[in-house]
């Protein structure tokens, strides 16, 4: 039986996409200029998908002792031109070293707002499903050193250094950031258990 569900999303919305709504109605496209359809940006898509997902969960489980955690948007730290950029920072940022990008900040706000709205919905239904936001955006912003970088494939330099080695600046696999998220989530779970 599943007691906790973690919604961790966001980067899938920064992809080429065609969005359909109820009844297969075309809502619009994102990053698809070659298709003649209305621009449906990632904020519009996220505003549609996250509330829909949370409404479905609250409708089904509002009178359960389950927990839903909405993790906020993480940063990619990609620098440079597409296909030739990197994410080679080797140390965390210090406060004030960089400014939070608009996209990530807005996606963070949307996730927190939707989690709060879902909490309100559960209360209005006299339910007790726990819904919490796990705000990891600033933590990830300060850790540009936590990405896998050129190591998205094993041994990228085994045959020498090639020009344009692909860099994975989205996923997190270096010690630190993910361990911190897991520690925070574990501490929150302990706190919830004691309430």
TrEMBL record:
InterPro entries: TBL, TBL_C. Belongs to the PC-esterase family. TBL subfamily. Residues 2-187 form the Trichome birefringence-like C-terminal domain. GO terms for molecular function: O-acetyltransferase activity. This is Protein trichome birefringence. It comes from Rhynchospora pubera. GO terms for cellular component: Golgi apparatus.
